[in-house]
């Protein structure tokens, strides 16, 4: 394997989460007795450019099938974030109704509807057919395809070039980033802006968010390796913002080379990465050690509650929860079931551990004592919404960075 940014083949592994099934592959009852494919989940650092990435790529055709179960409109926190995203981009770059915005990996169109409501022409591109269908139904024109050169050429023929191209929580999902930048070059207006958003490596390490590591997340973003990468592709990272969503994300603003002044925040953040030594093997090994400790303490907490006769279930079934359950081997030995709001997951079974997925109401009807909160990034919103469970004496376990009962 070669580094997905610089092509160097000297990659140092530092965290091995074992083999796990794809985190979004929820099973129907009939599949429970069939073989299930597990793939290696190992994280490496490039010794040349320091980019942190997975060592093994599961074919995207396996990961993003027509039954992809993630809808970005499921949480209020997410919807508010994306609306503010659209608003700030409109202001920063003085967009008008003539301007064309493309979102790659647009999901059900939450971000694009923010641009649409403010008058822009929009187009979504998302390979999950069921998700693209929901978007189209909601009035967000969406092509159900993987973004590639053919798609890029067709889009500019039909709509012209885009002033803004966004890739929110999708840049890290793409294997061939060099090819992606060529296709961005095709669709982007001469003065256009490419905006990337995704979880920031600094927070992944500092807050021990190891469960955000799964096969869809091929890369873990930081500025130090990305600045030369964009330069090599004829682009320039000229601005950056940080956000709390998904446990700490960065938004990168990229233009064609030498089109914009580089903001001082870019250099400040690169220096911060250097001072924190986030790319050093020492830091990365220390992180891996803490991950192992987290697994042990979470398991011993769950075992001791179970021995006291408590009933435990997991609440929310995000992809990251599947890494946690599979890596820690938390199945029906410790949990009764998992609950979810998304109807795309309810009545299915979790990949690997095969826990049944029920609606949130089961927490109360099945008299659950402890709810293990898998979507800790939306913990305030989830805990606020489960009033009946709380009023009945239910407690929450937040697994990360250290397991705590609240
Ligand atoms: Zn590299």
Keywords:
406 residues; alpha/beta; Rossmann fold; seven-stranded mixed sheet; six-stranded mixed sheet; 17 strands
Strands, total number: 17
Largest sheet: 7 strands, mixed
Distinct small molecules bound, one entry per kind? zinc ion
The CATH topology of the domain at 308-405: Rossmann fold
Query: In angstroms, what separates the terminal alpha carbons?
Result: 43 Å
The CATH homologous superfamily of the domain at 308-405 = NAD(P)-binding Rossmann-like Domain
Average pLDDT level: 94
**Rg over alpha carbons:** 21 Å
**Content-based structural category:** alpha/beta
Globally, the shape reads globular
Helix content: 25-40%
CATH class of the domain at 308-405: Alpha Beta
- Strand neighbour order, sheet with most strands: 6-5-4-7-8-11-10
Strand content: 15-25%
Structure in words:
- Strand 5 (about 120-125), helix 4 and strand 6 (about 140-145) form a beta-alpha-beta unit.
- The protein contains 14 helices and 17 strands.
- The chain has a domain at about 310-405: Rossmann fold (3-Layer(aba) Sandwich), CATH 3.40.50.
- It is α/β, with parallel strands linked by helices and about 400 residues long.
- It starts with 10 loop residues before the first strand and ends with a strand.
- The strands form three sheets. The chain has a seven-stranded mixed β-sheet with strand order 6-5-4-7-8-11-10, with helices on both faces. Strands 14-13-12-15-16-17 form a six-stranded mixed β-sheet. A four-stranded antiparallel β-sheet has the order 1-2-3-9, covered by helices on one side.
- Helix 2 (about 75-90) packs across helix 3 and helix 5 (about 150-160) packs parallel to helix 6.
- Bound molecules: zinc ion.
- Zinc ion (ZN) binds near residues 6, 46 and 51.
- Zinc ion (ZN) binds near residues 5, 8 and 51.
């Amino acid at each position: 394997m070669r580094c997905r940014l610089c092509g160097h083949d000297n990659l140092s592994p530092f965290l091995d989460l074992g083999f796990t099934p794809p985190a979004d592959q929820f099973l129907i009852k009939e599949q429970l007795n069939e073989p299930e494919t597990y793939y290696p989940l190992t994280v490496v650092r490039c010794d040349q450019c320091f980019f942190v990435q997975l060592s093994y790529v599961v074919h995207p055709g396996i990961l993003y099938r027509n039954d992809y179960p993630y809808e970005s409109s499921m949480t209020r926190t997410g919807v508010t974030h994306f609306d503010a995203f659209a608003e700030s981009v409109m202001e920063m770059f003085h967009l008008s109704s003539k301007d064309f915005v493309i979102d790659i990996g647009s999901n059900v169109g939450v971000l694009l509807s923010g641009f649409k409501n403010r008058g822009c022409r929009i187009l979504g591109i998302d390979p999950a057919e069921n998700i693209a269908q929901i978007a189209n139904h909601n009035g967000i024109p969406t092509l159900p395809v993987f973004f590639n050169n053919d798609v890029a050429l067709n889009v500019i023929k039909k709509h012209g070039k885009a002033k803004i191209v966004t890739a929110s929580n999708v840049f890290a999902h793409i294997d061939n980033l060099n090819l992606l930048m060529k296709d961005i070059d095709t669709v982007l207006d001469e003065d256009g802006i490419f905006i990337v958003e995704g979880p920031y490596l600094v927070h992944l390490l500092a807050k021990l968010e190891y469960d955000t590591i799964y096969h869809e997340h091929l890369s873990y973003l930081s500025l130090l390796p990305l600045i030369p990468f964009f330069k090599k592709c004829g682009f320039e990272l000229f601005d950056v913002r940080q956000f709390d969503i998904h446990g700490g994300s960065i938004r990168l603003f990229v233009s064609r080379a030498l089109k914009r002044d580089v903001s001082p925040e870019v250099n400040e953040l690169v220096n911060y990465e250097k001072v924190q030594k986030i790319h050093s093997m020492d830091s990365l090994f220390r992180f891996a050690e803490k991950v192992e400790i987290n697994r042990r303490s979470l398991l011993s907490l769950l075992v001791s509650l179970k021995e006291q006769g408590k009933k435990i279930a997991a609440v929310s079934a995000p992809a990251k929860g599947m890494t946690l359950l599979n890596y820690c081997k938390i199945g029906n030995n410790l949990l009764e079931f998992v609950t979810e709001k998304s109807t795309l997951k309810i009545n299915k079974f979790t990949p690997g551990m095969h826990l049944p997925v029920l609606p949130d109401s089961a927490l109360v009807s099945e008299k659950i004592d402890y709810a293990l909160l898998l979507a800790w990034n939306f913990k305030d919103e989830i805990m606020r919404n489960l009033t009946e469970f709380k009023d009945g004496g239910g407690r929450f376990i937040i697994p990360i960075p250290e397991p705590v009962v609240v």
